[in-house]
Design goal:
Layout: E1 5-6, E2 9-10, H1 11-30, H2 32-38, H3 40-59, H4 68-88, H5 96-120
Antiparallel strand pairs: 1-2
Helix pairs in contact: 1-3, 1-4, 2-3, 3-4, 3-5, 4-5
Length: 139
């Protein structure tokens, strides 16, 4: 089955990634009270860690084909927007400043994940050449 893309956006990977990222983020938020019992200072940064991990997991579902930054940022925003209502009314109440910080962190983490996946994925295809035909990796 060919991947479904709208322009340069991997829509199938976006939906799969956002769904998985949503699940990871909700589980991360639900674990927050247990983390707070073990270590109070760690619990303060736990929502940020849960967001980064959730968006990284979501970003791994994206095909890093043509526009990894756009795809990664979109999957980060989609993951966060699915989970935002649960973050507002979850087991811990986050201030609006923390919610906005998480909203800004999600697309950055998604873009970084997809970009890193693109950079670390195997050898470059033959199309990754300069216009003169010389391979970019050799330059």
């Amino acid at each position: 089955m060919a991947p479904s893309t709208v322009g340069a956006i991997d829509s199938n990977g976006m939906v799969r990634g956002a769904s998985l990222g949503f699940t990871v983020l909700i589980l991360g938020v639900l674990v927050t009270p247990a983390v707070a019992m073990v270590s109070g200072p760690v619990a303060g940064g736990w929502p940020y860690l849960a967001t980064v991990v959730a968006v990284a997991v979501a970003g791994m579902r994206i095909d890093p084909a043509s526009r990894p930054l756009l795809n990664g940022a979109l999957v980060g925003l989609l993951t966060y927007s699915l989970a935002a209502p649960f973050l507002m009314f979850g087991p811990i109440v986050l201030s609006s400043a923390r919610l906005w910080a998480l909203c800004l962190l999600a697309p950055v983490a998604g873009a970084a994940t997809v970009l890193a996946r693109k950079r670390l994925s195997g050898p470059r295809p033959a199309s990754a050449t300069w216009p003169c035909g010389r391979n970019r990796a050799a330059a």
